[in-house]
Sequence to fold (252 residues):
Amino acid sequence: MLKEHFLLFAMGGSNELLIGGERFVLTKGDMLLIKKRSNVEIIKSGDELNDFIYESVSFTLETDMIIDFIKLIEVDGIPSTKAVGDEIIVHRFGQRLQLFLESLKPYFKDNKDTSEGLFKVKMLELLYDLSHENPSFLKQLINLGRHETRDLAKIMEKYCFEPHTLKELASYSGMSLSGFQREFQFLYQVTPAKWVQNKRLQKAKTLFISTKLTVEKVCYEVGYENPSHFSRLYKRHFGFNPGETKSTLSEV
Fold:
């Protein structure tokens, strides 16, 4: 089960992959992008005509990287197409990418001395080259990014009324904390903490109006664990205490 999106390049020999019941074969010059949460089996075989040499290069592709790449390029003219976004496609790559991948070999050998910033630059360069050479790969990548954004919205709606930390919400969405906060700001134009607070307080207000639940029960219902803290936030947000909600609004 893949925890992150996965890029695989066949450099020599072959790869037989079983992905969700489908079989794919990659030979030299083939590559594919596999979505995270896919069940994958890979059988590697050497090249019979070249001393049974097998060689491949693979990368995990985190959500943060896809989103950062999409933000850097012009994508308005590229439609979202289900077929390209959801299917597994074997792409060919040319000599330019072959040489680029060869140039990365020293970084694999001396990865302790490779900074995170340099790694990110190289990955963005790889995605640029792939997208420039193969428009269908670019569409596939963009649809993955759009899918991640939809996932983020679903996760926030699902968990915002439960007492989760931002780090836990980021984990549920498959992002690092910094990537989660950056993408959330891009999607909602507000911080995650502020968005969650607003959602919880609005739901609390609705509960005070439509039910006879106590302050403590409403507090726990909307995801807070400390009634005193909840009451302070509520008054600061609305200008009146939780217990004053019905009387205050009936006077308006």
User: Anything to note?
Assistant: The longest helix spans residues 135-159.
